[in-house]
Specification:
410 residues; TIM Barrel; 2 domains; nine-stranded mixed β-sheet; three-stranded antiparallel β-sheet; 16 helices; 14 strands; 39% helix; globular
């Protein structure tokens, strides 16, 4: 029987895609995302689809899912992807292991999944292969083994350089550990290293944020991602804010922190190419994320992972036990899918491309959107020269209001 839909339509048990989606596969950029849904502990602000060991135990104490068997399951979905896409040549330009905490798996297990992707599809020449890593889960030896396994880029979750800020976020690494990890990664041969930062945490001061930026830059990454803290419902952080233990993030403070980030990162030679991302040059940009943002195809491996091929988007069941059971039964782990209409795809192009430094073409907008773009250019939210050339490109002020501008232009 087809999978039960969840805000979508049923997916055939074999995961097959409509002919319209398969047309052009291989001619569009193609990437693979691998979701590793395990964490040693759950951070207080996190609402990602991830599980601790305690959350994966049954009533009798036995594990219903485990990192130890996960590589086999991920490889099984790689095999499924190959069957669904047929014998078309689909070189993989980017692979991204995210989580969760991918580095709770050994480098050899991660490498086995990567090797399966390469064997079934083939990695394109110069393919970018990234893994996320929590600083406390890696050392020099692990990073050397990851590099030997074929990883070319690594992203460390630094978040802050201040101990009291890390405590509010319930991060377990100590200040200074991410910087040490960057040094080890460089020694291991990683050319591209990213640090993730979060700003606007309750109790963080301007001085704290400046120290985090300064410490991150001193480590020498060629890419920094900086995200405003979002208090997600259902998290421990949201409960603390609701009880009045912590102040909610302030929009004006968030704007000031963003401006500080852009100033310091730009001065250090890292320039924005997407609203929340700065890189030392084109080769340092996240090719995998750019594939998402520019309408490429990708297959998402793992519990809760999302995929998109040729205008069809689908998502896997969330729980690792359900994911494993479906694959063991020879069924797709997909929960449901949706076929994007032309209007859906137009809106998503505006949503994603407007956030990029090159912006989006004005001819993507309808009449009301073009009128809104003209007003935004007159108000200094869109670059006037770019607007005259037929593109909607955010100014620095416009970046602060990107979400609202998307709604106006679409």
């Amino acid at each position: 029987m087809p999978s039960v839909p969840l805000d979508g339509v049923p997916v055939p048990d074999d995961g097959s895609l409509p002919a319209s989606a398969l047309a052009g596969v291989g001619s569009r950029p193609f990437g693979v995302y691998v979701h590793v849904p395990f964490c040693a502990t759950r951070c207080g602000y996190c609402d990602f689809n991830t599980y601790t060991a305690a959350e994966l135990r049954s009533r009798d104490g036995s594990a219903v899912a485990s990192p130890r068997t996960y590589a086999d399951q991920a490889v099984a979905e790689v095999d499924l992807a190959r069957r669904v896409l047929g014998d078309r040549e689909v070189p993989v330009r980017t692979v991204f292991f995210g989580g969760g905490t991918p580095t709770l798996l050994s480098p050899e297990e991660l490498g086995r999944i990567l090797a399966a992707i390469d064997d079934r599809f083939g990695l394109a020449p110069g393919a970018e292969v990234t893994t996320e890593a929590n600083p406390e889960t890696v050392d020099r030896d692990v990073l050397l083994r990851l590099r030997d396994a074929g990883f070319t880029r690594i992203s460390f979750g630094m978040q802050s350089a201040r101990e009291h800020v890390l405590a509010v976020l319930e991060r377990t690494h100590t200040p200074g550990r991410p910087q040490q990890c960057v040094a080890w990664a460089r020694e291991a041969g990683f050319e591209h290293v990213n640090l993730d930062l979060i700003y606007g945490t309750p109790g963080e001061s301007d001085a704290d944020w400046k120290e985090s930026l300064t410490a991150a830059l001193a480590a020498g990454p060629d890419h920094v991602s900086a995200y405003s803290l979002i208090v997600e419902e259902g998290t421990r952080l949201a409960a603390r804010v609701r009880r009045g233990e912590l102040a909610p993030p302030d929009d004006d403070v968030m704007a000031d922190r963003y401006l500080m980030a852009d100033e310091l990162l730009s001065a250090a030679g890292l320039h924005w190419y997407e609203v929340s991302n700065w890189a030392a040059g084109p080769s340092a940009r996240s090719a995998h994320n750019l594939l998402y943002w520019t309408g490429g195809d990708w297959w998402g491996i793992g519990p809760g992972a999302h995929s998109h091929v040729g205008g069809v988007r689908w998502w896997n069941v969330k729980h690792p036990a359900a994911y494993a059971a479906r694959l063991a039964a020879g069924r797709t782990p997909a929960q449901a899918r949706e076929l994007l209409s032309a209007e859906d795809r137009r809106f998503e192009r505006i949503l994603l491309e407007l956030r990029l430094a090159q912006g989006c073409p004005l001819d993507l907008l309808d009449d009301s959107g073009r009128a809104a773009a003209a007003r935004a250019a007159a108000d200094g939210l869109l670059d006037a020269a770019a607007h005259a050339r037929g593109r909607a490109v955010l100014t620095l002020r416009g970046r602060l209001l990107a979400d609202a501008l998307v709604l106006d232009l679409s």
